[in-house]
Amino acid sequence: MEIQLYNITKKFGGVTANDCISLNIRQGEVIALLGENGAGKSTLMKMLFGLYPPDDGSILVNGRETIIDSPQKAMSLGIGMVFQQFNLVPALSVLDNLLLAYPKPPFWTFRRWFGNGASLRQVLLYLEELAPGLAPNTLVRDLSVGQRQLLELVKVLNLDAKVLILDEPTSVLPPQEAERLWGMIGKLAEAGRSVVLITHKMQDVMACAHRVVVMRAGQMVKTLEREECTETSLVSLMMGDSSDRSPIDTDTLADFAGKPPRISIRNLSARQGTQSIEDINLDIGPGEILGIAGISGNGQHLLADSLVGLTPLIRGEVIIDGISLHSAGRAPQTSDQVAYVPEQPAVNAVASDLSLTTNVALSHFRNLSFFPDWRPEEESTRDIIWRYQVRPDNPALQAGRLSGGNLQKLVVGRELQGQRDLIVAAYPTMGLDAGAAHDIYQALFAKAREGASVLWISEDLDDLMSYAHRIAVLQNGRISGIFHPQQCDRLDIGRAMTGEQQAPSDFRHENKPLESYARTA
Ligand SMILES: Nc1ncnc2c1ncn2[C@@H]1O[C@H](COP(=O)(O)OP(=O)(O)OP(=O)(O)O)[C@@H](O)[C@H]1O
After folding, report:
1. For residue 85, how far is its CA from the centre of ligand 1 (angstroms)?
2. What fold is seen in the domain 3-243?
3. What sign for the dihedral angle of Cα 447, 449, 451, 456?
4. What was the ipTM of the complex prediction?
5. Which of 134, 286, 314, 520 is least surrounded by Cβ atoms within 10 Å, i.e. has the fewest?
6. Residue ranges per domain, the chain?
7. Protein residue whose Cα sits closest to atom 14 of ligand 1
8. Ligand 1 lined by 391 (C-beta under 6 Å)
9. What CATH class does 263-337+419-517 carry?
10. Can you tell me the distance from the alpha carbon of 388 to that of 380, in angstroms, rounded to the nearest whole number?
């Protein structure tokens, strides 16, 4: 199947999301669609999937001009899309969600009464390949973000799409799962399917793309064969002049030698569905960035939620500056001292129908008066917009109208505002282009220099090794190792992630003086 997008233009109010874009998608080809946040990648693909009509231009399917006015129409043509936001029913099992994805056969066919013809084996075929070991009767609410992402992909693969559009499919996948996905993409292309991969990750490009298309500010700036690409050339094509950012200031790291820990996590245990965390003991110094590594689904989400008071504790306590913030047996509570950037902020951290200003004000809504003065709120929203380069830069815009990356920047900006003692950041740079990720790291370090303790959950081991002071590995709900990045390599951490390495014996109570953690510059 061949697709030609010809002179496609799409505007949202004053924003030109796509400006006269032409692109051929050939059979058996993997195209990586690159561009900074808000460049217009998702909009272009959403038009191909029938979610938006183009304002101008046409789409040709196998040489014939075709109006794709709904996702149903797109799917009937063999075009499938996996979005950044998931479309799953959490209370149903993996298998139920897969079955729900099959379109209902029309009323005049016998298939309506005798099932859609797919055998259980067929329904589970791709699931077994992409997520071996994931039981089909597991409830979706108990899946990690990475597993949910794979499930979304399996739903589309099951529908036998000839052209697959994947929006940031590896942003939440740990390295092993990303590799498995690259392998699958390669196989799909060999079998004649086409894949458009919207991504910010150069590893994705190098691992499986045949051709790279770079967009910037709604325009297509370059198309390259993969062999012609280098990481530097792609970054400068994506970012234009704004690729010149000052290096991340890691030199002036807070010195926590001799100081008591700011955050003490004692014997923390909690449970949610089938997920649990057991006996977590960690101290985080003032100014320290403690990375949490682990394969997704090993308790990261629960750890973050229980630290910020969204989940009751079964055992244990969280102490900030010697004062108990949460403990078992007490109703969980949130605190202004604690900032939280949850995974999937579009679902977990914003009200998408409300304006950017209202969403920023939500972080301190308890302190707002009955008739709030919106001027200072708008002022601080403008400050976040300017600092993190959120686009479009309109505080009155509904948050749901921001691109995924720009929404992420807004949430990080909101959470890092003002005085914070503990910052819990789950995948804060997920879905961000290199420039925006750089700005977020810069902001986290600035907060650490002010004395905040940062617990940073990430699946990007390279980033953790580059920026965290220490890395704790979460495996099966327990800490399986704590590492100083200068004194270990990726393999040590990998072993702890898979449970090959046992926790050191002095591990249960990490009450060592903090100087033993100090980074050796
Ligand atoms: N439904 C919408 N209403 C208003 N503006 C929109 C809408 N969807 C997208 N936009 C705007 O169009 C521009 C392009 O957004 P798009 O989501 O296509 O970017 P993107 O390149 O996919 O970004 P990201 O990498 O952050 O996901 C952005 O400025 C965005 O705010």
Report:
1. 14
2. Rossmann fold (3.40.50)
3. positive
4. 0.98
5. 520
6. 3-243, 263-337+419-517
7. 40
8. yes
9. alpha beta
10. 12
